[in-house]
Every structure is written in C-alpha cells, then in structure tokens.
C-alpha cells in the first residue's frame, strides 16, 4: 500500500491523553461557598494589550476543579486583571479572596 504524504497521522500512542477527568493532585481543595473576588496577575516578558487579557478559562477551571460551584454573580463579585513586565520566567498567579476581600482569607489557586 503506498504511503500518503499528504496526511500527518499519529498513532493513538503518540497522542496526549485527555486530562479532563485526571485527579487535581494530592492537595486538599478549599471550596468557596461565599461570594468572592478573583484576582489574575500575570508576570510577562512582553505585556499584552489591556483588552486582550481574558480570565474566562481561569474561572471555568476554578469551577471545573470544584473550588466554586458555578461562575455566576452569586459566587463571583469581581474578576480583576493585572500584569507586570518581567525579565524572569513568565507566570500567572490566581488568587481567590472570600467575603469582603479580607486579605487573611486568600487562597492561591495556581502559580505556574
């Protein structure tokens, strides 16, 4: 059978497995049932346009992980974005602040 050079076919062994049902890790998850504020801060080598920053995937991931029951205004009172230029490694820090933004009740969701 002739080889078809027009297609890039990968075997199932070369494909990345679906991670949608993968465990989130051994760490206990703090569930938030009161209204909260989500703060997304990015350290970037090149700053993004202010209108190009979106936290929808972050918020959806927080809900998918079970930290928040849903992404309605009943659960989330505000989503704030900020960014800072860095010469070091890029990372995004997501912080959930419960209640009336009490700084002592913060949970860092992810730092990558």
Written overview of the protein:
It contains 1 helix and 4 strands. It has 112 residues and is mainly β. It has a 4-stranded mixed sheet, covered by helices on one side. The chain has one domain: Dihydrodipicolinate Reductase, domain 2, CATH 3.30.360.
What is the topology?
Elements: E1 36-44, H1 56-64, E2 76-85, E3 91-98, E4 106-111
What fraction of residues sit in β-strands?
A: 25-35%
Form type: elongated
Instruction: Kindly report the average pLDDT value.
Output: 75
Query: Quick one: biggest sheet?
Result: 4 strands, mixed
Number of strands: 4
Main CATH class: Alpha Beta
Extract low-pLDDT stretches: 101-105
Reported by name, the CATH topology is Dihydrodipicolinate Reductase, domain 2
Report the order of strands and helices: EHEEE
Spatial strand sequence of the major β-sheet: 2-1-3-4
Q: Helicity level, as a percent range?
A: under 10%
Gyration radius, in Å: 19 Å
The helix tally amounts to 1
> Structural class, from helix and strand content?
mainly beta
CATH architecture: 2-Layer Sandwich
* Structural domain tally: 1
Distance between the termini: 47 Å
Keyword list:
112 residues; mainly beta; Dihydrodipicolinate Reductase, domain 2; four-stranded mixed β-sheet; 1 helix
Describe the structure in brief.
Helices cover 8% and strands 29% of the residues. By secondary structure, the chain is mainly β.
